[in-house]
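# step 3/5: fold
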Amino acid sequence: MKILSSDKFRFYGLCIMLLAGLIFIYSNHFNNPFHFDDEHAIVNNTWIRSIKNIPRFFVDGTTSSCLPQNQSYRPVLTTLNAIDYAIAKWNPLGIKNNNEGIGTFYFHLSIFICFILQAFLMFLLIKKILDISFKHRWDKYFALFIVALYCYHTALAETINYIIAWADSLSTFMVLLAMVIYIYYPSKRKYHLYLIPYILGFLVKEPALMFGPILFVYIILFEKQIDLNKIFSNQNWRKIFDALKSVAVTLVIAVVLIFLSNIFRSKTYIPGGYSKWNYLITQPFVMVQYFKTFILPTELSADTDWETLRSVFSIRLLMGFMFVTGMIWLAIRLTRQEILRPVSFGIFWFFLALLPTSSIVPLSEVLNDHRVFFPYIGLAISVSVALIYLIILKDENKFESSDIRKIGIAVLLIGILCGHAYGTHQRNKVWSTYESLWYDVTQKSPGNGRGMMNYALSQMSKGNYIEAKKYFEIAREYSPNYSLVYINLGVLHTALNDPRGAEEYFKEAIAIGTYIDQGYYYYGNFLFKQKRYDEAAQMLRNSIENNPAYTEPRFALMELYSETEDWSNLEKLAEETLKYLPNDPQCLTYINAGKNKKTKLDIAIETATTNPTPDNYLNLSLLYYNAGSYNECVEACKKAVKLKPDYALAYNNMCSAYNQLKMYDKAVEACNKAISITPDFELAKNNLKLAQSQLKK
C-alpha cells in the first residue's frame, strides 16, 4: 500500500478544505429562484420543455427564448437548459421546491458542478504556467491559492446565482478545457482535439472565441519565451509567425462559427439599443470599474444604472484610456523577466476576455457584473502572482528566516479568502428572492428604471399597491420609453379598480412599440376581464401573431373561446398550441371541451382531476368563487394546501370564501395562516380585517 508523503498529504488536505469551504459558501444558493432573463429563456420558453426539441436548437435560434428580441444562437446552452428542465420536472432527489413553477435546484447543481470542474482545470493551467516561470517547489500551493481567490471571489456570485449566466461559466469552462488539452498533450495537437471544447464553448456563448487570441499569447510568452520589449527583432518575428501558424486553424474556425451564428440566429434578435460609438467610448472606463470591483467588490448590482458617455471630451474616457494603455504597457514591460510573465499573461487574458462585450456591437447593458466571470481568471493570475512575487519570491531568504513574516502573510492570504467567502455568502442571500434582489438594485443603481420597475413588481405581487405605484412612477421617470413599465402600470391600475387608467397605460405601451407581443397580451387579458370579448380576442390574436411561441396569450384566448362557447376556434387553437407544447394536459382538455362543448368550470374541474397540482386547484377555487359556489371554493383550497401546505394564496382564497359564507371565525383562521406564511400579504390582511370587523358586531 502506497503511503502519501507529508507534503502530498498536506496539499490534498488543503484541497479538501478549500473545496469544503467553497461548498459551504454556496450552500445557501441552491434554491435561489429564476431571475430576469431566466424568465424568457427558461421559465416561459416552451421549446425547452421537451428534450425532443434538442435537434431543432442547432438550426433555429428562435428556440433560445420566448422573446423575439432575445433569440440569439446558443444551442448547447439551450440543450442543457432543456435537460435540466427535464430533470427538475422528474425531481429524482425529491427536492422541495420553494419557488413557483419548476424548481431551480437542479439548474444550480449543474452550474456548481461545472464550477468545481472549472477550478480543477484552472489549477492545471496555472500550475503549468508557474512551473515554466517560477520553477519553484511551492508552485502547486501558489496555483491553489490563485484558484481559491478566483472561486471565492464575491463578484462571481453574480454569475453562479444567475441561472441563464451559465452561458458565461460554461463557455469559460470550455475555453479552459481547450487550453489544458492543448498544453498538456503537445503530441496530440496535430489531431486538433482541443478544438472540440472550443467549438462547443462558442455554441454556449460567443466570448469563447477569445480562446484563439489567449492561446496565441500563451504560446508567445511561455512556449516561444518572447520578450515583447524586443518584438521587432527578426528572431522574435519568426517566433510570432510560428505562433500564428499554431492558432491559424482556431482563427479560421472562429470566422466559420460567426458566419453560422449569423445564419441560424433569429432575424428578430437585437443585442442592444445604444449608439455604437457611445457604447465603444464608454468601455475603457467600464474596464476600470471591473478592475476596481476585483479589488473591492462592494458595488455589485444585478442591473446597473450606467449610461454611455456622450462625448470624447469626458474625464471618464481619459481615465479609461490611461488605464488600458497603462496596463498593456505594464504587461509588455513585465515580459522582460520570466518570473513575471504570468502577470503579463493575466493582464492580456483580462482584456481579451472583455473584448466581446467591449466591441462596437453594443449590448443591452453598458456594464454587467456577471460578465467578469471569464476575464477575472486573468486578473486572479496577474494580481496573485504579483502579490506572491512581492511578498515571498522577491526576497525568499528574508521570508524563510522570519516567522513573523510567515504568520503575517498567512493571515493576509487567509483574510482575503475569508472576506470574499463572507461577501459571496451574503450575495447569495441577496439573490434568494425576487424582492431582495431588486431592492438591492434600487439601492446600488438608483437611476435604473428597469430595476425600479422590477422592485415595484415584487410589491405588487404582495398586494402592496401603494409602494408598487411609487416605484412604477419612479421607473417611468427614469425610463419614459420602456413599454414594460406602462404594461405593469396597466396591471396595477386594474388591481386598483381603475379600468380607465389601466386602459390608457396599455394603449401607451402598445404605442411605444417594444415588447409588442406582451403589450397586446396584457391589454387583451384586461379587455377579457372587462367582458369586451371581441376586442380582447383581437388583441390576443395580435400577440400570437407577433410571437407564436408566446403561450400565455394562447391560453388566454382559449379561455376566452371557452367562456364565449366558441367551440370550433377553441379546438383549433388548442390543437395548434400542441405544436409548441406537445401532450400539454391543458391543451388536451380544451380540445376535449371543444368537441364536447364543456364550460370553463367543467374544464377547470377536469384539469384539476387529471392533473392535481396546487395551481390547478387554486384556479378551480377562483372559478367556484366567481360562480358563487363558496363551499366548493373552500374544498378546492383545502386540496391545494394539502399538496402545498405553505400555499398562502390558497389560504387567502379560503378566507374570502368563508367571509362570503359568513363563517368569520374560520375566515380569521385561514387569513392568519396566509399571513404567517407571507407576512406582507396585503390582500390577506384586508380579508382578515373584514372578518374581524364582522366578528365584533
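# step 4/5: annotate
The CA atoms of residues 125 and 180 lie 6 Å apart.
# step 5/5: archive (pending)
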